[in-house]
Each structure stands twice: as structure tokens, then as C-alpha cells.
Amino acid sequence: MIRPDPFPQGGYRLAAVFIATAWLVFCWPWLGGGQIIPHDAKNHFYPMVRFLALAWHSGESPLWSPYHFGGFPMVADPQSVIFTPSFWPAVLAGPAPSMRLVDAIHLLHLLVMGLAILGFARLRGWRVEAGAAAAICFMLSGALTVRLEHLLMTVSMMWLAVCLWRLEAVLTHGGIWRGIAFGVALGLMLIDRNHVAYLAAWFLGFYWLSRSWPGSGQTVPLRHQTPVILGGITALCLAAIPILLLLQLAEISNRPSFDYEGASLQSLHPAALATLFMVDIFGPLDRAGAYWGPASHAWGGQFFVHRGMLHGYVGALALVLILWHGIGAGRLWRREALVFTLLAILFLIYALGHYTPVFEWLYDTVPGIDLFRRPADALFLFGASAALLTGALMNDMLRAPSRLSTVGSLAVLVLTISGAVFVGLLGAKQGHLADLGLPAARALAYSAILLALLIMAVRVRGTLQRSLLAAILLISAVDLITAHSNIRLNASLPQFYDQLETPAAYDHIARLAALSKATDPSGAPWRVETIGLGASSQNIGQAAGIEALLGYNPIRLRAFDSLIAPKHQNNASANRRFGTAMTSYDSVMADQLGLRYIMTGKPVEKIDRTLPQDALQEVAVIPYLDQNFHLYENRDAKPRAVLLPATGSGATPGPQPRITRYTNVVVEVSAKCTSPCRLVLHDFAYPGWTATANGVPVPLMIQDGLFRAVDLSVGQNKVTFTFSPLTLENLQAALIGVLGGDGTP
Prior knowledge:
This protein is α+β, with helices and mostly antiparallel strands. 47% of the residues lie in helices and 10% in strands. The chain is built from 24 helices and 13 strands. It has helices spanning 8-31, 40-58, 88-93, 99-124, 128-139, 142-146, 151-173, 176-190, 195-212, 225-251, 260-263, 316-328, 335-352, 357-365, 378-399, 406-429, 437-457, 462-484, 498-501, 507-517, 540-544, 558-563, 588-592, 728-738, and strands at residues 527-531, 595-600, 617-624, 627-633, 641-645, 658-662, 666-673, 677-684, 689-693, 696-698, 701-703, 707-712, 715-723. The protein has a 5-stranded antiparallel β-sheet, with no helix packed on it. Strand 11 (701-703) and strand 12 (707-712) form a beta hairpin. Helix 5 (128-139) runs antiparallel to helix 15, helix 8 (176-190) packs parallel to helix 10 and helix 13 (335-352) packs antiparallel against helix 15. The longest helix has 27 residues, at 225-251. It is elongated. The protein starts with 7 loop residues before the first helix and ends in a 7-residue tail after the last helix.
């Protein structure tokens, strides 16, 4: 039977203060030091928050964005933050929330997860020091903090911690309201619909089974399982519609699923396991330098993985406890630690992906895996498992100190020597053996100090023991903070991204925004394309309210991907891939899209090598930093709304239609037909868009594989296109489509 902590109240309050202090020190470079979280956190997620804020404060709907890839269903995009309530305060703060505000809210998720893990430890009856150790390792682990740019994965990890805490509360105490609280947390975790959330659901399922399994020694009364089931139903109610809308998008997107090769493309290279016990092993994390680790040019090959996806350091304390107490004393397989041991092994195997035969079996067997690429994402869950295993082992060590067994000692010795040889061979093979000195010295220093303090701590009691344990926690926090705070992978100066926060202050963006506001002959804004302007300009349309044709998002409509820009989601590069319909800037499709202005980072003839001379008119060359941006005009761009003969041939059946209302989710068009005609709106068709003519519903057709169209009779017609993805009709159609039927609403 687990004995209660001798100082449960004051001890846990003090631990909460310690966790908050460690969090503040870790976050200070961003909160008070002038840094911002870079890369995808700004290039992708910040414009999403800006769009949502602008829509909210202007009275627009955020369900559809005309500023992203020429028009995109934000309601179905798992990265749109529409269903992420923890970021709503930034949205409600004003139409243009600052980068620092968004970063501060982002970082608060780390604090919440640390406190939630502390609450979980208290419910488990762990010693307060063990709970604090688990919390620190959980919220400051390598995969989580090094990859802060992946904003919604941080959110998912926070909800995992809260779910674990609330699930333990239900299993321990029961109660309908506790079950509902668990369900709300679970629903909010699943609602972001990313790989980490998917794997976190596995984590919770395994933990629930471990607590409920007969003979586990942790008997859960049957009456306590009813609130867990109620929580699952609550989660399903919260997450079902967003998940269904995502699956509807996936079915007509460029990535409905991944084949095995695609799903395993970004697996964790086995050599990256060295990061589990040595920081900076492949080059410094805190400054620019030559990275020589796996999946880089130094290792050869043609596919390269971002370094942040290969870093799994959970701290020297975790390493020492797992080796010394877990393996050496044989405590990895005891009741309290067993589930976290198994989870750590499972997620590490998953992260290794195609480097093990297990992942292919999982891919073929487990539903949902083929929806995601990058098995290395499982490092997030490995970090969580290792952190909780650290807490469980420390608690076990303090409750029942044990001696190293002969077999355990030998195993630790073999593992230590093998690890040292492994690292040495890596360095020697790549010609970087001399560069391993500082990382090795750091690892040895932290490990030796922590091991010595742990040995002393288990031999004393009372105030001296608590002082030694406090020192261990402090050193562990320093270890993780110095390893992962304010490094070049998660911190940057804001000036590289200022144009996203204050786009009107930049001449090239201000000019483009002004031009795009001018309306075409039908009354709609002209579309623009930016290409080769740099990474922070990729989603400038979302941030500045410009109807941009390209953007930065891994998910795109399949028709857009094939007809307009195949595999072209990143227009930071000036290498434009044209589609089967938009074969050039001088093409019928480009004109139909109403693509009036193109701004490039180099002369357009170097981007579109088939472009006839003078097809575009260069109207400005705008200096920016050390380069020039070129602004071109396509004077052949067509109006957004046009009339075509119903037969497909013959004279234009009426005057130019006029768009009388153009919002994110409602477009009203006035069209006078002198003969039966078809009204084509050169906006993208998508499930959930419906049409009425003179107040009567009419079939919505797809013109040229992309555009919305309706057939009209002779006379004056008022046509209204409305995006209503949350109607019962569309949701039923989405469900039928997901189940393999005809999902046409």
C-alpha cells in the first residue's frame, strides 16, 4: 500500500512554486528577453491566429478564408486554431494580436502541463519530490521544447497532462463530474487533430488499461469506470464534428493518407538515440553551426530531416534513475513504473519508424496511422513516458531503497560502455570525434553529481534528505533549462517576422494590399501571388488580408494541387511548379483565377521560363533588405463572376454580372440572363458551399474542375453562394463519404 506523503499540503504548494519558477526562468528569453518563437510558429500558426482575430473583430466568419491558397476551408484545417480555446484570449484581445502575446499564451501551456503532472503525482500518492521531478522533465523535455514551433503539438501535450491528471482522479475517486471534466480535456486534446494528439490517445488508453487490468494491484471499483465511459462520450461529442470535417477535407485533399513509404519517411534515425543522453552531440543547439548528425548532408542521402525532430533529451536525472534504480536495481518492471516503461519503449520503437519491423506491422494493423507522416513525432510521447517513469522510479527509490543486483550492475556497465562506444564510433565515422569532448563532459558532470546526491539522499532522512532532494530538483531544472531554453531552434529576434505583425509598415506588402483591394469588373478583389519573398512572407495573405493564391500549408485541395500548383505549398522558394491547367502565368487558368498581380523575389522570366515577352507588365521594383522585389501586372485577368452560354457555345448571354456582397462565407451575385446561361464564380467549390437563385435552392456544379457554377433561367437573377459546413446535410454527407459512399451533399 502506498504511504501518503508526510507533508502533502505544504510540500505540494512549494513544489508548484518551484515548477512555476523553473517555467519562468525557462521562458524568460521570450517573456522578457526580446526573443520570439520562430519558424512554423510564425510562418504558419501566427497568421492563422491573425486571420481568426481579424474575422472575429470585423464580424466575419472564420470558417472559410479567401486569403489562403485562393480560398480554403479553415473549419476543416486542423492547424487553423478555430477549435483551440486556449488561444482565444489572443483572438479576443484585438484584431491584430502581437507575436509576443501569442508566444506568451503558447508558453503558458508548458506551465499548465507541469502543474497537471504534479496533480497527477499527488493523486498517485507519490512523494512530492518525485512529482516535481516528473513535472520538470515532462514540461522541459527535448522534443517538446526544442520543437516549440509546432504550436498545436504543445497544446496537445498540455491536454495530455490534464487528461492524465483528470483520468487518475476519476479512477481514484469516481464521480460523474470528474468523468465529464476528463472528457472535456480529452475532447480538447483530440479536437486539434494532429499526430501528437493521436498518439496521446494511445497513451491514455494504455494507462487506463494498466489501471483497470485485473491483478494490476491497483484495483479500480467498477462504479468508477462509468464516469470514464461518460468522459469518453463527452470527448466524442466535442471532437466528432471537427474530426469529421477534417476527414471530409482529407478525402479531397492532396494527402488523404500516406503509403507506408510516405508515412515512414521522417523516422527517427537510430544514431539520433545518442541525443537521449548527450546534448549538443551533433553540434551546438544554442548557436548556428555545422550540424553533422543523421539525416543531413554529412550523412549523404537525398532526404533531410529537421534537427528538432531528432532530439529526445529528457535530462540527466531521468538517465541516472533509469540506469541506476530502474535497470541496476531491477525496478523498471515493478507495478508503479511498469506502464511508463512499456510506454517509453513503445513510443521509441514507433519513433524509429521504418528502422524497425514493428512500425510496418503497426501501419498495416492500427487504424489512423496512415493519416500521418513523421514517426519521429512519437518523441513527444517518449519524453512524456520517460518523465513519468522518472517520477515513478524516484518515488519507488524513496519509499523502498534497494541495492544494485549483480545482474543489474552488469547490465548498467554494459549499457554505459556500449553507449560510449556507440557515440565514439559516430563521431569517428563522421570526423567529429574531437567535437564530442564538451557534450560528453557535460553529460558526465550532471550525471555524476545527480547520482552522488541520489545515493546520499536514500541514506538519510528528515530535513537533510529533503535538502538533498531539493538540490537534485534544482540541478535537474538547470540541466534542462540550459539545454533547451533560448536555442536557435526555438528562439529568434522578432525583426525577421515583423512584417507579419505590422504588414502595413512594409512598402511591398502595403502596395500589394492596396492593389488587391481594387475590385475587378464584377466587384470582387483581384487575386495576387507572392513567390520568393522569404519564409516569413509565405502566409502574408492571412496576416494582411490579401487574397493570395499561394501559401504555406501541408494540406491543399487536390484539384488545386494538380491544376494550379502541384506540391507547391512553400512559396519562400522562387522555384514555381505550375499545374496541368495553370501552365504559366500566361494561361487561361491564371486569367480565370483573376490573378492580377504577381510579386516575385527575382525577375519573373527566371521563375516562369515559358512566359512570352511582355505577357506581364512590370509596374515596380521595390527594394527590400539586400534584394529587390518585382511587381508585375497581368492585364488579361478576368472578373471573378462571368456568364457562359448554357450550351457551352455562342454569344455571352447577358451583361457582366455584379457581385453585390462578398464576405468570407456569403457571396451574392446579380446576373441578368438574356438566354439560358451558367453563372461561374471563380471561387473554389468545396463541400458545404450551397447556392440559391432568387431564394430557391439550385444545384451547385463544379466548372473546370475547380469553380462554383449554377445554371440560370432567362431574366434577372439574384444568386447567393453560402458556406454552411456545419449543417446536418453536409455533416451527413461527410460521414457517408468517410464510410466509403458518395459524400456529395
